[in-house]
UniProtKB/TrEMBL annotation:
Name of the protein in question: 3-hydroxyacyl-CoA dehydrogenase/3a,7a,12a-trihydroxy-5b-cholest-24-enoyl-CoA hydratase
Species assigned in the record: Paraperlucidibaca baekdonensis
Residues of the full protein shown: 1 to 313 of 999
Domain Ketoreductase per the UniProt entry, residue ranges: 8-201
Compartments it resides in: Peroxisome
Signal peptide: none
Sequence similarity: Belongs to the short-chain dehydrogenases/reductases (SDR) family.
């Protein structure tokens, strides 16, 4: 079986370099019609140029594929989607990938550092997805990828703006996955690691040599394929390794309603509250609410079997 993307139209943002270029080349080689979007600026958000996008379009066409360039910044999502409509008549796949860095420790971060990173990563991904959304809803089909980062998922020194934007993307994806569920629109998030101009200064060359963008793109393409039923997933991917993330929640501690509990009670149960033995894996807001509702419905005994019954009377 060779999975293909014939008749599918894909927008890849920031596709002039690095990961986006690799995604675009792979989809183009598998039959997709590709909009190669790239502003063509520097790694810190400076300048613009058509060179990067044009070069990737030329590569796709030279390999026998179909592609057009778009040079708009991602916060103008409607223009990028319009390029897809003008060239290919529709859009099936949006890969939100464009990104820059403005790394600086929080106490030195300026409002401009914050605004620019939020604009490119979070607003940009929203904007392109938002412009494609009505088309996908009408046709009952769509595949959207968000590109988060380990920095966003776990936190990293000197990247407050980037971490906030990147975890915001996971939140956006989770919401769109729910809204798209009944419309055939699937939304997934990747946290990649790859050698690119964003990482070439922060990782040693011998490590970068094994972190090829081409090792990330097969996962992205699979998540964008019509045979793939995955939605609302978050995946870590790099150097040939792929894994899925999920939330984990401790069993927790229920304090009985109708009886005040104190700061000391919280302090005394702190180890239980943080004990991940037999942890659960909530995946929806209903899952989140369930133990709280259970506590409400069992006001004398508290919320679960781990309640300290001596204290619950
Ligand atoms: P890259 O710098 O090689 O490519 C990013 C591309 O996005 C560039 O061609 C740039 O011109 C374009 N771009 C920047 N701002 C744009 C805008 N406003 N509108 C349109 N295009 C714009 O970087 P790389 O590493 O390929 O990054 C791709 C994505 O992956 C980014 O979102 C980045 O944050 C994310 N990422 C990368 C990691 C890595 O290890 N390389 C790690 C975690 C996340």
């Amino acid at each position: 079986m060779a999975l293909r993307f014939d008749q599918r139209v894909a927008i890849v943002t920031g596709a002039g370099n690095g990961l986006g270029r690799s995604h675009a080349l792979l989809l183009g080689s598998l039959g997709a019609k590709v909009v190669v979007n790239d502003l063509g600026g520097g790694a810190h958000g400076d300048g613009k140029s058509s060179t990067a996008a044009d070069a990737v379009v030329a590569e796709i066409i030279a390999a026998g594929g179909e592609a057009v360039a778009n040079y708009d910044s991602v916060e103008h999502g409607e223009r990028i989607v319009q390029t897809a409509l003008d060239a290919f008549g529709t859009v099936d796949i949006v890969i939100n990938n464009a990104g820059i860095l403005r790394d600086v420790s929080f106490h030195k971060m300026t409002q401009a550092d914050w605004d620019l990173i939020l604009k490119v990563h979070l607003t940009g991904s929203m904007s392109v997805s938002h412009a494609a959304w009505p088309i996908m809803r009408d046709k009952g089909y769509g595949r959207i990828i968000m590109t988060t980062s380990a920095a966003g998922l776990y936190g990293n020194f000197g990247q407050a703006n980037y971490c906030a934007a990147k975890l915001g993307l996971a939140g956006l994806a989770n919401c769109l996955a729910e809204e798209g569920r009944s419309k055939g629109i699937q939304v997934n998030t990747i946290a990649p690691i790859a050698a690119s101009r964003l990482t070439e200064t922060i990782m040693p060359p011998e490590l970068l040599a094994n972190l090829k963008p081409e090792h990330v793109s097969p996962l992205v393409a699979w998540l964008c394929h019509e045979d793939c039923e995955q939605t609302k997933g978050i995946f870590e991917v790099g150097a040939g390794y792929i894994s899925q993330l999920r939330w984990e929640r401790t069993q927790g501690q229920s304090f009985p309603l109708g009886k005040n509990f104190s700061v000391d009670d919280v302090a005394n149960k702190w180890n239980t509250i943080g004990d991940f033995t037999n942890a659960g894996h909530p995946a929806t807001v209903n899952d989140s609410f369930a133990p709280i509702l259970h506590n409400i419905n069992n006001p004398r005994l508290g919320g679960n079997e781990f309640i300290d019954l001596d204290e619950a009377v």
